[in-house]
Write a structure and sequence with these properties.
mainly alpha, MetI-like fold, 2 domains, extended, cell membrane, MetI-like, transmembrane helix, transport, membrane
Length: about 425
């Protein structure tokens, strides 16, 4: 029976055969991962891209007042603009057929200049009356009519708001989210002290998230260490108990904490029965209740990375350190703990990133001064219908998350290089 001759070692035929085999292997690997890549593109990258685009998009004024934007392009933004600008506003408002578009324009301008909403809507209704407002009026007559209709058209701030937002793309939302603003002349300055709220909200978000992360680490580390010292069967059984909260809705767990922490709840009653306190503690609708509930919800996310790392640390290291003369406590902190830094970093990063995006728990258990950035994103989305501002705050949250991840990666690389 004849067999095909194999290529000689080092021959071009062998190299070509190996190259074809490697190409086939890579092609198969790409085809196997392609569904996952498409899924991530559709569900993650595309929404993030849309969020970032909407954070700098400003379509309301540009779409509704195109002629006005052109008429104001040469205006110095001081005093009252020339008569053609009045005629352009009247023509643009008369061309709007959809009342919802006019309402969106009015709301957008009202965020820049208080009172613009009523001004725009009253003018919109007036210019839509073809009998009372002919379309062929000279620009000077249109200016007089608009000033007679509402004298606020003679104030520069409303025209400055239109000129400032005449472009479809704007940095205003992003600037506002970090307590900055674009001045009518085009420069950038900090907002007034009483309006600098988002910086405090962001710091509050980081403060609550850091507090929750530290408490999770303090509670999870000894528990994970104990689980890592048990036999596999016992550890697996107890790990099921750790994972039980994942099977319960967050709303159910938050509702349970409301029952437990209220003035007549189980916690206060138990403490008073044990004579630890004389009157009920304020554990609800404040920072204490928010931290307790968030720690309870996020604790498994700290335990799992710690446990996986601790299981890989040989217990003989501690015994060797003690046998060489080290005190048990010193051996634990100088020999064992450094080997769990990877689990500490992974767990802390995971808990912190999840915590800064929390919305339901602070909204239900916290007070007015305990709401995090996600609460205001929901407020702008559902109540104020200001998608640009909501997306800008989401972009700030995304940037903070990426920055934290970048810091973690640098610290991890530095630790590996030192090790």
């Amino acid at each position: 029976m004849s067999t095909a001759a194999l290529p000689a070692i080092g021959s071009p035929a062998l190299r070509q055969s190996l190259h074809r085999a490697e190409t086939r292997r890579r092609t198969v690997a790409v085809l196997l991962t392609l569904p996952l890549l498409v899924f991530l593109l559709v569900t993650l990258l595309v929404p993030i891209g849309a969020l970032l685009m909407r954070a700098v998009e400003n379509p309301e004024v540009a779409a509704a007042l195109p002629r006005t934007g052109e008429a104001l392009s040469g205006w110095d933004r001081h005093g009252t603009p020339p008569a053609p600008a009045f005629a352009a506003v009247a023509a643009d408002l008369a061309a709007i057929d959809d009342g919802a578009q006019a309402g969106g324009l009015a709301r957008r301008l009202n965020t820049e200049a208080s009172g613009a909403r009523s001004l725009v809507m009253s003018t919109y209704r007036a210019v839509r009356d073809k009998d009372a407002w002919p379309a062929t009026l000279p620009a000077a007559d249109v200016q007089q009519r608009m000033l007679a209709l509402d004298e606020r058209w003679g104030q520069a701030k409303y025209w400055q708001a239109i000129a400032k937002n005449a472009s479809r793309w704007t940095p205003d939302y992003l600037l506002t989210s970090i307590d900055l603003k674009r001045q009518p002349e085009g420069g950038i300055a900090r907002v007034e002290p009483e309006q600098r709220v988002f910086g405090r909200i962001l710091l509050r978000t980081f403060e609550i998230s850091l507090t929750v992360t530290l408490w999770c680490l303090l509670l999870a580390y000894p528990l994970a260490y104990w689980l890592s010292t048990l036999k596999a069967r016992q550890a697996n059984l107890l790990m099921i108990l750790v994972l039980v909260p994942f099977w319960t809705s967050i709303l159910v767990r938050v509702a349970a904490w409301i029952v437990l922490l209220q003035r007549e709840g189980l916690v206060n009653k138990s403490l008073m029965a044990l004579s630890v306190i004389q009157e009920p503690l304020a554990l609800l609708f404040n920072r204490t209740g928010v931290v307790i509930a968030m720690v309870h919800i996020l604790l498994p996310f700290m335990i799992l990375p710690l446990y996986s790392v601790m299981k890989s640390v040989p217990p003989t290291y501690l015994r060797a350190a003690v046998s060489l003369g080290s005190a048990p406590l010193a051996a634990f902190f100088r020999v064992y703990v450094p080997q769990t830094y990877a689990g500490i970093g992974a767990g802390a990063l995971l808990v912190f990133i999840l915590a800064i995006g929390y919305y339901v728990t602070p909204a239900l258990l916290g007070g007015a001064d305990d709401q995090m950035l996600s609460y205001y994103i929901a407020q702008y989305t559902n109540v104020d219908i200001n998608w640009g501002m909501a997306c800008a705050l989401g972009a700030v949250l995304l940037a903070a998350t990426l920055a934290l991840y970048g810091i973690y990666r640098k610290l991890a690389k530095a630790e590996l290089s030192l090790g």
